[in-house]
């Protein structure tokens, strides 16, 4: 199933909000991305920033599970949303 851009952006926005509310994981994201709290607030609606948050979550299955369980969405939704947001197209190396 392919998500619409609107659906992907909604998942991305929810991912940013979920991450910002996670006291243990949010500092890890800020440290690894170099983003500040002001950057997060300023870029909430930016699909490229949302994509970076989804990229971060996709680094650990436990993070994906935690987010998806909190949002009551299928686990594969994170990868589907990431594929729709900017930079998410499949790379063909051949």
TrEMBL record:
InterPro entries: DUF3572 (IPR021955). It holds the Pfam family DUF3572. This is DUF3572 domain-containing protein. The lineage of its organism: Bacteria, Pseudomonadati, Pseudomonadota, Alphaproteobacteria, Rhodobacterales.
